[in-house]
Amino acid sequence: MAGSVLIVGAGAIGAFYGGVLARAGCDVSVVARSDYDAVARDGFRVASTIGDLSFRPRKVLRAAEGEFDIVFVALKLTRGVDRVAMIRPALGPGTAIVLVVNGIDVEQEVAEAFPGHELLSGVAYAAASREAPGHVRHHSQYTRLILGRYPSGASETADRLAELLKKGGSSCQVVEDIVGARWMKCAWNTVFNPISAIGGGLGSKDMLASGESVAFAHAAISEVCAVAKAAGHPLPEDTADKQIAGTQRMANHVSSMGQDWLAGRPMETEAILGNAVRIARRLQVPAPRLESLYALLLMAENRRRGPAEVA
Amino acid sequence: MAGSVLIVGAGAIGAFYGGVLARAGCDVSVVARSDYDAVARDGFRVASTIGDLSFRPRKVLRAAEGEFDIVFVALKLTRGVDRVAMIRPALGPGTAIVLVVNGIDVEQEVAEAFPGHELLSGVAYAAASREAPGHVRHHSQYTRLILGRYPSGASETADRLAELLKKGGSSCQVVEDIVGARWMKCAWNTVFNPISAIGGGLGSKDMLASGESVAFAHAAISEVCAVAKAAGHPLPEDTADKQIAGTQRMANHVSSMGQDWLAGRPMETEAILGNAVRIARRLQVPAPRLESLYALLLMAENRRRGPAEVA
After folding, report:
1. CATH number of the domain that residue A108 is part of
2. How far lies A17's CA from each of A32, A167, B132, in Å?
3. What is the pLDDT of residue B140?
4. Is the N or the C terminus of chain B less surrounded, counting Cβ atoms within 10 Å?
């Protein structure tokens, strides 16, 4: 089967995997909000390191409707986004839901709302950016999507979707512990994204410019690892070392949250950091550095409301 | 005795206490650097809640020279300030040195450089700001200077200086544990000054706008208290509660370090925060929130060197 797919949240990642699935022969529709006009008129132009992935969706919708085999949700999880309401109108009896989003503990709400539907969760390592309405550039060599049934286990749907993604030119890995894969991504995201934003858009080199900041990042990543372990998803012992070393090898790249901060866009504060802090508290794992980052990130967001008065 | 006093570092606090001492009949000279021209020409104009404290110094110097009864050092302790070299040329056989500066562990270097001189350490709670070259406004109702012999003990010199300050209209309290008084001020300064600067100039209300930020500030103040206690200077049990409550009562005042950040001026990072972190480590007191603030503040300072490249 190729099947029908509705991409909900047609930003960079949604357009990229939509293009991959279209190239694999799927019948791809999209819900586009801010970019509706451009996409309805011209479709998606997707320039990728794996070739041109431009495609014209079967349907371009302002809101979900119909019945699809797969509802592929690639939304940024910022405050006030009601995923459940956005997904509901596109569900038929056998529709599977795929959440390709950032953060940890981001599935529960959807799982509870739609208990009769298979829920897959996905962690994307592809780096793509929206250059203009309907125009997306995928600029990393990697295309990797890690996919798995939520909360765990094998899934024929995941296997079939992975085959389609590979047919379309992406790499895709199906795992039985997708939550563990989320924690692995959080080992970087939960620490470096907030640091980057709190610092006003720090690049990876800026974040590791002193021994003090390297020690801090290492200790904060170790807190993420301790929480993941307590939650039943132990990460490799050398995770903090490897994340630091990998980051030191990067060009001075500004993280997605740092870029959101610089652009004045909403940030995925709760999905990426707040949820991790809440899990730490629930499991009584000390995470003072994550709590520090969370408090400071909330203050930075609050400051956006207006400058403080200088007395 | 009224005696001769050299104010080194004629910023807001130096000019204010210089004015108080001049009004008490002391023979006050100053070392003025950036404001030399204005002060040499017109003296200091000091508007205070305790009246006009304007005065014309006996001598206005670009660098210390001569012999004074008291060298009153009111410098900001930013990177690259060599206090020892600045003080040395003004010392005669019986000169006492008074350090009225922010931070913790800020006396050792001076004590070691001048073992033959009495060293007093002072913590000022007066709020004053430099409005223009040679023009200072003291705008708090309080004028309090806490003064004591370093590292501890009674001091006739401190008692005499306190009498002069009171005669000039300020309040002054002599204590035998001046390091404890420093820790008490650090219970606020070491936490809220860095938060304010890291947040890009946050006001006191901004820093306590959510339950998360209140909990963070409370926990960070408790870390300062734990370090102070381990260092032999226990603070009252309710210190964190009181600092939070007092800060919540403030207008949305931006801390001195936050104002320095906003103005692009150097900050007293090491005196106010770095030294506290180092003492915590030396005494093996966990201080992860202070370490977080320190790492993030260093990153913020580094960022000043230039914006990160957005890849």
Report:
1. 3.40.50.720
2. 15, 12, 60
3. 84
4. N
Any A CB within 8 A of B281 CB: no
> Do both B200 and B303 map to the same domain?
yes
pLDDT at A306: 60
SS3 A217: helix
CB contact under 8 A, B202 and A299: yes
pLDDT bin (cut points 50, 70, 90) of residue B124 is very high
In eight-state DSSP terms, residue A3 is -
**Residue B169, CA distances (Å) to B17, B37, B155 in order:** 10, 28, 21
Report yes or no: A307 at the B interface, CB cutoff 8 Å. yes
Residue B293: give the domain boundaries. 180-310
Residues of B in contact with A288 (CB under 8 A): 219, 288-289, 292
Please classify residue A49 by burial: count the beta carbons closer than 10 Å to its beta carbon, then call 0-12 exposed, 13-18 middle and 19+ buried: middle
Is the Cβ pair B210, A302 closer than 8 Å?
A: yes
Q: Do A148 and A225 belong to one domain?
A: no
Banded model confidence at residue A42, pLDDT cuts 50, 70, 90: very high
Count of domains forming chain A: 2
Q: What is the pLDDT of residue B133?
A: 94
On the question of pLDDT at A235 being above 50, the answer is yes
Nearest-angstrom CA–CA distance, B45 and B30: 14
Residues B37 and B141 in one domain: yes
Query: Looking at A153, A176, A199, which one is the last position of a domain?
Result: A176
